[in-house]
Amino acid sequence: MELTILWFVLIAILWIGYLVLEGFDFGVGMLLPILSRNKDKAKQDTERRLIINTIGPVWDGNEVWLITAGGATFAAFPEWYATLFSGFYIPLFLILLALIVRGVAFEYRGKINDDRWRARCDQAIIFGSWIPALLWGVAFANLVRGVELDAAHQYVGGFWALLSPFALLGGLTTVLLFLMHGAVFIALKTDGEVRVKARRLAGWFSLASVLVAGGWAVWAQVAYSVPWTWAAVVVAAVSLVGVVLANAKAREGWAFLFSALAILSATVLIFGSMYPDVMPAFDPANSLTIDNASSTQYTLTVMTWVAVILVPVVLVYQSWTYWVFRRRLSTKDIPPPIGLSLRKLKDSAFGGPSSGSAKNLDLTPATGEKASGTDATASGPAKNGPGDTSA
């Protein structure tokens, strides 16, 4: 196998890993206000912390797949990287902004014991989950459909040109797939009332995914793809039906495997439709291919040896992480909120009265609680440290 083909396949595998693993992270974030809807504010917060704790130990590790995919693209196909990131600048910037906001919200939600603070962090998590879930689908749909490139392989279309009906349907497809994936994952990782609600939502989203994702996949296959990718379409369809059946029988493990297989098959359809291009153009003569976008043979050879050594290490470590945090969580595993309490001071820090509308806040640990800490995770009792994000 030529190294250019090998690295195209490896980059596709990295994207499969990212979309499967980060897909349920996005789904969990999008479902946060739905699954935790409760008139009892204390119970609502406990359920939200439970939901966030299902991905607390793993969400940041899942994002490594995106960094690796981006780095591999930059090194193996620099022309592809340059054209993609310049042409898709606005959607990729919005995705990056959303991921940063979501990560900060995960890490700092439990640092301050204040309802308004946690509500704002929840809004950031929801925003940071919906935007990437939608825009990744839009971006990949454009790679299947093709974009407007000139003879120098530069994108000459505008932002709005990326929002075609086919691309928007692709965005809706990824949103529904990730909602289904996240709901199945929450049902797999929780117990009690949250599990029941998650299973119910997983059923609805899996049915919606069969219709919407199935429609987009057939459109992509008929209009833009090659004959052999019909196999990916069939596998995706069977997998979505498998999610519906397994979820109905409360077999969350099988439902999650089928859900992951559906996302895997959709990604195979995307990359199979692109090949041998990496950036298809409306005019085939202007398309970037794996040959005219690749690095030198020496660079690809060095990268191959590095990947052979490091990729197995990453896979083993991440597999071990999921094994350690494998058990189910319930609201009984979530301790009372831990964090700094906000108290308005009557006098300023300099001894005088507080002036005007200035808000002098005293950040002190809540009575009888530590200033920092974590909730229980999927492996057992809580430990202080960055592993938990939802105290």
TrEMBL record:
GO process annotations (BP): aerobic electron transport chain
- Keywords from the UniProt entry: Cell membrane, Electron transport, Heme, Iron, Membrane, Metal-binding, Transmembrane, Transmembrane helix, Transport
Q: Where are the transmembrane segments?
A: 6-35, 88-105, 125-147, 159-180, 201-222, 228-247, 254-275, 302-325
Q: Does the keyword Lipid metabolism apply?
A: no
Q: Please list where the region (Disordered) is annotated.
A: 349-391
Q: Where in the cell is it found?
A: Cell membrane
| Gene Ontology terms for molecular function | electron transfer activity; metal ion binding; oxidoreductase activity, acting on diphenols and related substances as donors, oxygen as acceptor
Q: What is its main location?
A: membrane
Top-rank lineage group of the source organism: Bacteria
A single GO CC term, please?
Answer: plasma membrane
The protein's name in its UniProt record:
Cytochrome d ubiquinol oxidase subunit II
Which species?
Answer: Oerskovia douganii
